[in-house]
Specification:
This protein is α/β, with parallel strands linked by helices. The chain is 48% helix and 14% strand. It contains 14 helices and 11 strands. The chain has a 6-stranded parallel beta sheet, sandwiched between helices. It has a 3-stranded mixed beta sheet with strand order 7-8-9. α9 runs parallel beside α14 and α12 packs antiparallel against α13.
């Protein structure tokens, strides 16, 4: 662990609940930056035990974590879990002192975020939404992109903690961080579909996919998913790890929820949600979201493996 830094901002006490694939390395990065961190298990105890061995204070529940904190962070899968951490009988509200800033780093609907802000205001607690992009590797090295919705005063208070995790961008009031994160998710969900559909089209025509990808990298169709993501997932012949399809499907649902609140139809994203939902129903929800390619492969009876096409007989 790097040497702890003793500065006024580093003396902020941080609570953390949600020690999953993202939360555990995030809590570790905050501790490494010199902050006192108090955490509790949300689902599994093993991450908390690992962090406790590195100087994180382990407590029994969110109320205890909030009681020991100036800034209390939650990083869990979806809005129902956020609500539980905040408002259950031993949630943050039960332990937090007036003026504590609660930071939700989950990806949920901004509609839910604004509702949480209103409820927490009744308890004299402040709320910030700060979803992240970058995955576990960037959570570990403190280089996440952080999209923040907050008042100017609350952003100023939590910014030192967020900078231990990456680069925070203050985008406006509560709900705007989630809005911009969902913009990212809308784009990657639809971009993945476009990439997969086009590459299966190319292989059906007999094109060499390695050559196709090299050409596209210099053309107007170049994109991060095609150049950086697919070569280490679908085109590499592996769908394990990565970003779980069910998590992206959950994010698309949150985006559609927010769009309905503004009477904004999103036909492409609605179709994407149905396509990812079908793939989830086939048992692929825990796989990387490039598993959506399996639907296209099965339509045409072909399968792409490590950049090579293996022709199959008939449909699957």
């Amino acid at each position: 662990m790097a040497a702890l830094v003793d500065t006024p901002s580093a003396r902020l006490r941080v609570g953390f609940v949600g020690l999953g694939a993202m939360g555990e390395p995030m809590a570790r990065s905050i501790r490494r930056a010199g902050f006192s961190v108090t955490a509790c298990a949300h689902r599994r105890k093993e991450p908390l035990e690992r962090l406790a061995a590195e100087g994180v204070n382990a407590v029994a529940d969110p109320a205890e974590a909030a009681a020991a904190s100036d800034v209390a962070i939650v990083c869990v899968p979806d809005a129902p879990q956020v609500e539980d951490v905040l408002f259950a009988s031993r949630g943050f509200v039960a332990g937090a002192k007036a003026g504590t800033v609660i930071v939700d780093m989950s990806t949920i609907s901004p509609v839910a975020s604004r509702a949480f802000e209103r409820r927490l205001d009744e308890h004299e607690l402040h709320f910030v939404d700060a979803p992240v992009s970058g995955g576990p590797a960037r959570a570990s090295d403190g280089s996440l992109t952080i999209m923040v919705g907050a008042s100017a005063a609350d952003f100023s208070r939590v910014e030192p903690v967020l900078r231990a995790l990456g680069t925070p961008h203050h985008l406006g009031p509560v709900g705007m961080g989630e809005t911009v994160k969902l913009v990212n998710q809308i784009i990657i969900a639809n971009t993945m579909l476009g990439n997969v559909e086009a590459l299966v089209f190319a292989q059906r025509a007999g094109a060499d996919l390695d050559t196709v990808c090299k050409v596209l990298a210099t053309a107007t169709a170049s994109n991060y998913v095609l150049e950086r993501w697919l070569p280490k997932t679908w085109l590499a012949g592996t769908l394990e790890g990565g970003f779980a399809l069910d998590l992206l499907r959950k994010d698309i649902a949150a985006a559609l929820d927010a769009a309905r609140a503004t009477s904004y139809p999103m036909p492409a994203t609605s179709l994407a949600y149905q396509l990812y939902t079908y793939r989830s129903a086939q048992g692929d929800g825990a796989l990387d979201y490039s598993a959506i390619a399996k639907s296209y492969e099965r339509i045409v009876g072909d399968e792409i493996d490590a950049g090579r096409v293996r022709q199959k007989s008939g449909f699957q």
